[in-house]
Amino acid sequence: MNRSNGLHVGSIITTLDQDENGVIDLLLGDVSFNNLTFLQNEGSNLFSNIGTKD
User: Fold this and answer.
1) Which domain holds residue 36?
2) Which of 8, 17, 43, 51 has its CA 20 to 30 A from that of 36?
3) Is 24 left (phi over 0), alpha (psi -120 to 50) or beta?
4) Which tens digits make up the pLDDT trace of 16-45?
């Protein structure tokens, strides 16, 4: 536990199909930052290619 703000120290990795094209994308987050990072998979589920980061 981070004693300065009471938050659990950790990160998240969430898989989702944001654009509903059948290919899994990633959403990354961390308690140390105030934002999430979206990584769009422009490849396939077998051979991923992260082409867009937002």
Assistant:
1) 1-43
2) 43
3) beta
4) 999 999 999 999 999 888 999 999 999 999
